[in-house]
């Protein structure tokens, strides 16, 4: 954490706010404690004084002035409660008994509670703080009864000082705690910032580090990572499309260009021109169909079509496509056998699904060999719809099965047959779009394509 | 017929105007959305060929404005956007047909003629006739020269489409779209195989064939030679 960032740093501001709140809470708590303690002490003093007064007035009533004087002398003698303060004075304010030096001028004899600084007769030094009440007695003399509050004041001061120290410590702890907590949090935010900066610099493989705590920041990092994965997948898909375009369109374009150039170099013959143009058109048709297949794959892979998935009857679609393709299959000397089609609904993109199934049938026809059968079936098991397309051809060797789902992969045996090598990769892309599972299995003989879909919610 | 071509690419527009004129149609052209909308609003055309990506006002914008102004001229949308969803968007905006670039001129011509004919056709028909071939749409029965012809449901729809567009050229993609409602490139001769089966049923044993192959374009059902 550099200094120039300190004031603008979230950590600093967070820690400060944290410490302030912490301190404010401590201040309220300790302040309350202090004031209630002080009030309690004062009430205790007043209660004690009131009790003393009751006892003394009883004595006065029963034994008169001399009894009162005696009682006060006893109570203020050395060895008695040192905190009690008494003064009995005559009408001329001359002290008669008690442990105060003289009658204080501020003490109005009306029975109200007062706090006074008084000089005690039995103690040297300065005045002490006393809480007291003063009265007129019926014979004109005056009585003051009080409590020395010096010890209590001392206790209060100590309490206040200790509270202040504690408050200071609390603030320091709050500041440090806030700093540590926020630094931990913000360091993780910094990690996200750092990752996104590196991604902006072009490294799409970067991921936000996770701490597996499952808290909010971790969840944020996780969903950021998922988003990044999706973006990376899309970018890779895009790159694959451009690579594929270059790969598969370059050669037919080269052929086309060569053919046109050769024709122009040749004799000025309308028939030759016508022929060349027709061949060029045929070449363009091939380019166009490759292009269409690539775009369909890109459409399926971009996931943009996911929004257009709708509940559709898969069995009806299979019947439809089978009906469309069965004449082609028969033309090729094969038979298309549609087995049991259980009625199931899946969330699907009708056009892309039909095209994918058409590609599977087309593939089966191409590789099934002579006189074979192509079998279609649709079953509903374990809450899944399973579509199978099976041929009786040579099949695909196990090690190559995954590879044929990739773009432009054509096994050597297939090189002599027409086709772009995109048929199965479109199927694979459509399968991914539908969140479905596509497996190629050996059917001994032949290839079985098992395609399982989750059922549409009913 | 009078056709308005709204296309900003000069070469493509030249090519369409030339082709349509040679086929005997009157063609006007507009190079951007505003001009296209202005010309089309007069409503004097039998069909409009509308490119989707245009300067000033895009094709779908033109189309929506036209439909909002109750101009019901059939519109064929031309687009470089080939995805199924783009197509759906085009048709939802009020387009009557959608053709992806690059296209064959024969495909454009065939689709335009079907569009124009369709907008003039009577709404409800119960009986279609081409030469001695008759189709009863209510009883779902087909006869040729009084002899009953047994057709599968899909063959019936295929023949119905051909009969409704008798005398016109229909392309393979038009058939795949209209009869099967699929918009993908089947990459095989599926349609040809279906046509040849239908041909077996309706033409075999008759002296004059009705179902003709139009070279380089598609098929046409017609009674004359």
TrEMBL record, chain A:
* Sorted UniProt keywords: Coiled coil, Kinase, Membrane, Phosphoprotein, Transferase, Transmembrane, Transmembrane helix, Two-component regulatory system
Note one Pfam family from the annotation: HAMP
Subcellular localization, per the record?
Answer: Membrane
What are this entry's molecular-function GO terms? kinase activity
Domain HAMP residues, every copy = 183-236
Q: Is Nucleotidyltransferase included in the keywords of this UniProt record?
A: no
Q: Which residues form a coiled coil?
A: 210-237
Protein's name according to its UniProt entry? histidine kinase
Please tell me the species this chain comes from.
Aquibaculum arenosum
From TrEMBL, chain B:
Cleavable signal peptide: none
The Response regulatory domain extends over 2-116
Q: Which residues form the OmpR/PhoB-type domain?
A: 125-223
List UniProt keywords, sorted A-Z.
DNA-binding, Phosphoprotein
Q: Which InterPro entries does the record match to this protein?
A: CheY-like_superfamily (IPR011006), OmpR/PhoB-type_DNA-bd (IPR001867), Sig_transdc_resp-reg_receiver (IPR001789), WalR-like (IPR039420), WH-like_DNA-bd_sf (IPR036388)
Residue ranges flagged as DNA-binding region = 125-223
Q: What highest taxon heads this organism's lineage?
A: Bacteria
Name the record gives this protein: Response regulator transcription factor
Q: Which organism is it from?
A: Aquibaculum arenosum
